[in-house]
Write a structure and sequence with these properties.
Length: 127
C-alpha cells in the first residue's frame, strides 16, 4: 500500500509550503482549505495531517465514486462524484476537499507536497 506519511521524530516549522503545493497543483491557487494536507497545532507543535487511506470516505460515498486502486490509494471518480460531501463528513482526519465547483478531492499520494517541504519531513512510502 502506498501512502503519504510524516517521518518519525521530524519537526514541522508550519511554513505551509506543502499546503501551498497541494492547493496550487489541484486548484491553481493558494488556499489552505483546498489542500489535501493540513497543518494543525498539536500540544503547541505544528503537525502535518495526511490521508492514511483508511477507506471511510469510500464507505460513506453513496454514488460509489471512491474506490481503491491496486496500490491501496482511494481515488475519486470525478464523473461519478455528486459533490454531496458525505465523504468529507466521514473523513476522520479532515483532509478531504469539497468546493462549490466540485467534485470533491483527496490525497492520492502524488508526492507534490513531499517535494515542496523544505524540512524534508514528508515521504511517500509503500506499506
Amino acid at each position: 500500500m502506498k501512502k503519504l506519511t510524516v517521518k518519525k521524530g521530524s519537526t514541522c516549522m508550519a511554513c505551509l509550503e506543502c499546503v501551498r503545493a497541494c492547493s496550487n497543483a489541484f486548484y491553481k491557487e493558494f488556499d489552505p482549505a483546498k489542500s489535501c494536507i493540513q497543518i494543525v497545532d498539536k500540544k503547541g507543535a505544528a503537525k502535518p495531517v495526511t490521508c492514511v487511506q483508511c477507506g471511510k470516505c469510500a464507505e460513506a460515498c453513496e454514488a460509489k465514486a471512491i474506490s481503491q486502486n491496486d496500490k491501496g490509494i482511494y481515488k475519486i471518480d470525478k464523473k461519478l462524484c455528486t459533490n454531496c460531501g458525505k465523504c468529507v463528513e466521514a473523513c476522520p482526519f479532515g483532509v478531504m476537499v469539497k468546493t462549490e465547483q466540485g467534485p470533491t478531492s483527496k490525497c492520492i499520494a502524488c508526492g507534490i507536497c513531499v517535494k515542496a517541504c523544505p524540512m524534508e519531513i514528508l515521504e511517500v512510502v509503500e506499506k
